[in-house]
Write a structure and sequence with these properties.
By secondary structure, the protein is of the alpha+beta class. The protein contains 7 helices and 17 strands. It has helices at about 55-70, 90-95, 120-130, 170-175, 175-200, 250-260, 275-290; strands at about 15-20, 20-25, 30-35, 40, 45, 75-80, 100-105, 105, 110-115, 130, 135, 145-150, 155, 165, 205-215, 220, 230-235. The protein binds adenosine-5'-triphosphate and magnesium ion. Adenosine-5'-triphosphate (ATP) binds near residues 31, 75 and 107.
Length: about 300
């Protein structure tokens, strides 16, 4: 069973950033990334946490970093909390299982997205123009259809508000031809390997976002990798094109929020126990289906 729910941290270390889900601390040339049990929906963080979620996300990222290291190196150094600085040692038990020590890199400010299916902002773009991020797609595709081949659809990381989708050409104009192509190639190679692995285990990875950085001139993968928070997961048995297939992890939560009449403005309503438990079970399933590893 997972440890107690953790939705906030306040370690005596300099903060690097606070996201919707993760608290990141600056360790000099390294970072401590703590994945809390916070959950967001409709871009808003819910008041309750989901037990075990931080552990699931951390273990999935670590799993995929291990499996993709031959394609491209990544920032993961250790999940051993014995390596925490002395001032954070008293929190070691709370952080174990949900935290990573990573190499700090110079972030490349683009979201590198691979898509194998037509969903989300890609479906909206396709309906409006027949194209997605500069890639022309065949006519007559339905929502959630599988694409003839996976496509690379980068976006500019916006400091606030929504990320802006751009074409590979536009990205190359900004970062240079060689780096742009390397980002596209690495993103698509990782997606292809992960999507085929996951499909054999009953999960469709419809699309996924990754981030890269430069360290001593070398391109490395940073941030999280192929988690339900950075990707769109569908259960094979629930998949049908022509509509929006249920989200593997968040459908239970979204269905309840929709029925609650909440207007998607903060504060979000407190989630009932059964919604928390149902959502926690889906995260656990994602980990178990993909890695064959049970939760602690
Ligand atoms: N190895 C790394 N070196 C430098 N920066 C990193 C590294 N790994 C991740 N980052 C950056 O650290 C930040 C982690 O923040 P996090 O994902 O928690 O929040 P966010 O992206 O700002 O918000 P959210 O994901 O909730 O929308 C991101 O800006 C990410 O790009
Ligand atoms: Mg993020």
């Amino acid at each position: 069973m997972p440890g107690p729910v953790l939705t906030q941290t306040d370690l005596p270390l300099p903060r690097f950033g606070v996201g919707k889900v993760r608290d990141t601390y600056d360790l000099g040339d390294r970072l401590l990334m703590v994945t809390t049990d916070r959950v967001s929906a409709y871009d808003c963080v819910m008041p309750n946490g989901i037990p075990g979620k931080g552990e699931v996300l951390t273990r999935l990222s670590a799993f995929w970093f291990g499996r993709t290291a031959e394609i491209i190196p990544n920032h993961l150094l250790s999940t051993d909390m014995g390596e925490l600085p002395p001032e954070a040692q008293p929190w070691r038990e709370q952080l174990a299982g949900r935290s990573m020590i990573v190499r700090k890199a110079k972030r490349i400010d683009f979201e590198c997205v691979a898509r194998g299916y037509l969903a989300g902002s890609a479906w909206s773009e396709y309906r409006a123009s027949g194209m997605v991020c500069g890639v022309r797609l065949p006519a007559g595709l339905r929502q959630a259809d599988e694409l003839p081949e996976p496509i690379f659809t980068p976006a500019i990381k916006a400091e606030s508000g929504h990320d802006e989708n751009i074409s590979l050409e536009e990205m190359k104009n900004r970062v240079g031809e060689d780096l742009g192509q390397a980002l596209a190639d690495a993103t698509l190679a990782i997606y292809a390997a992960a999507a085929s692995y996951a499909l054999d285990r009953g999960i469709i990875i419809a699309d996924t976002k990754m981030e890269f950085g430069l360290l001593d001139g070398q391109l490395i993968l940073i941030d999280e990798l192929l988690t339900p928070d950075s990707s769109r997961f569908w259960a094979v048995g629930e998949y049908a094109p022509g509509g929006s297939p249920p989200s593997f992890d968040k459908q239970y939560l979204r269905d309840w929020l929709d029925s609650s009449g909440w207007n998607h403005q903060p504060p979000a309503p407190t989630l009932p126990d059964d919604v928390v438990a149902g959502t926690a079970a889906r995260y656990r399933e994602a980990l178990e289906w993909l890695t064959d590893e049970p939760m602690r």
